[in-house]
Amino acid sequence: MSEKTILSRRPLLAAAALSLAVALLLALSGCITTNPQTNDASQGADNPQSAAAPQGRSTEDTPSQDSAQGDVVSTAMVVYNDGKTVLFADQDTGSLYYPTLTGATGDPDDVLRGLDGDDIDLDELAVGNIVRVTGNGIMLESYPGQYPGITKVEVIERGNPSDADQYAEEISQVIVTPDPADVPSSYVEYTTDMAQASVLLEAYEYEWVVPQNGDRKAGEQELEGSADDRQGVIKQGINDARISGPVEALVGFSVAPTNVVIERTPLVNTSTPAIDPRAEDQLVPVTVQADGSVTFTMEPNYLYEIDADFSQGEASYAFYTLS
Prior knowledge:
Distance between the termini: 75 Å
Shape: globular
Helix content: 10-25%
Strand content: 25-35%
Mean pLDDT: 79
Radius of gyration: 28 Å
Largest sheet: 8 strands, mixed
Low-confidence stretches: 1-63
Order of helices and strands: HHHEEEEEEEHEEEEEEEEEEEEE
Number of strands: 20
Number of helices: 4
């Protein structure tokens, strides 16, 4: 074998040795494990799940993430509960948000736990309670926030109702007692790349019972109407939402409804917004929130009609989307 041939193999041998050393180092590093319960502050900046967690967290009960389930844990104070609407205040920033307390089955007993760890009813969740909240950490961008991904709420401290007094002014701005004679208004909220938008919705059709209140007699209000002119052209006064593609949206009401159904019909004309009056409506899947509002996926170039039931009657609202 020539000397030239021998010399040409040396770089190959060196490269092979280097590759073997790197492989050994990688194998050894794979044996190093970390405690999944360790809550290193440096992980939060790089962890998208942590970044999506609800605003405001207690410094004493820093949110942790279960590596197997992906759950995010935080603490909050119960600052309002009328048996239907519940408001939490995050214990770090004091930000108010509506928690989902109905679980996958629609039963609060699946979510709520008392100080002793037993299931409790919604009316047992008292103002001033400090609770540990477990969920997916994703807060919807509304005011107050919406936290639909809650899987468990545990009372960890009884607290005192007076502890919630510090939030009284904010609560008064959020919880407004409507006039029972007024048909509820509605709105749709959504977020685009540019901004967060809100569109006001007025009922185009309703049946409403006005209860007796002092000198005002009980009575009924009724309005018949439709979102289009029966030829398919959408009526003036029906507002529009501008979106470029599918977005998550929220429909809320000035009075908490007992049931909400959303249907949509595709637009056949967008310059003069119109639908085919013979087309069948499509049922839109919705997720009910703690305050009676609903979230759903909104897509461009549809007429959306919302039928809501209330304790005093029913009302219908509409809006259409354009791309």
